[in-house]
């Protein structure tokens, strides 16, 4: 049942983003930033953890989850290091995910040969 819930919630988030893309003049990069900021805000006000318990991977996989990871890292770093944690917490918590994306992207580029689009 967890898979069904994750699929439905993740699909709903993707559908809302698609509506934003088609009905507004927002560029995809701005919508991605909006999702990350929304995840960070929901984490800041304490709602994201409840959503994570209910919807599991449905809310953790989209960019909302990345915003939560950044905010969670900042909260922990501020508790441990004080003011400097504002600047280091997001980097420390997001480093593994970003590194994995870069490494696996590079490995995929070695395995698969991309074709250039013809204009």
Description:
This protein has 119 residues and is mostly helical. It has one domain (2-111). Helix content is 82%, strand content 0%. The chain is built from six helices and no strands. It has helices at 2-23, 28-44, 48-55, 57-60, 63-81, 85-111. Helix 2 crosses helix 5 and helix 5 (63-81) runs antiparallel to helix 6 (85-111). The longest helix has 27 residues, at 85-111. It starts with a helix and ends in an 8-residue tail after the last helix. The mean pLDDT is 90.
Low-confidence stretches: none
Report on the biggest sheet.
none
Helical fraction equals over 70%
Helix/strand class:
mainly alpha
Specify the number of helices.
Answer: 6
What is the oligomeric state here?
single chain
Q: Give the tally of structural domains.
A: 1
Helix and strand pattern: HHHHHH
Distance between the termini: 45 Å
| C-alpha geometry | globular
- How many extended strands? 0
Quote the beta fraction: under 5%
Measured on Cα atoms, how large is the radius of gyration? 17 Å
The pLDDT mean sits at: 90
């Amino acid at each position: 049942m967890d898979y069904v819930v994750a699929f439905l919630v993740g699909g709903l988030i993707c559908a809302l983003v698609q509506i934003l893309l088609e009905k507004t003049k927002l560029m995809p990069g701005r919508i991605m930033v909006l999702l990350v900021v929304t995840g960070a805000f929901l984490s800041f006000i304490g709602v994201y953890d409840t959503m994570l318990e209910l919807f599991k991977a449905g809310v953790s996989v989209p960019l909302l989850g990345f915003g939560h990871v950044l905010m969670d890292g900042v909260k922990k770093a501020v508790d441990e290091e004080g003011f400097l944690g504002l600047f280091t917490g997001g980097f420390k918590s997001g480093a593994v995910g970003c590194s994995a994306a870069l490494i696996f992207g590079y490995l995929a580029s070695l395995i698969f040969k991309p074709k250039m689009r013809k204009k």
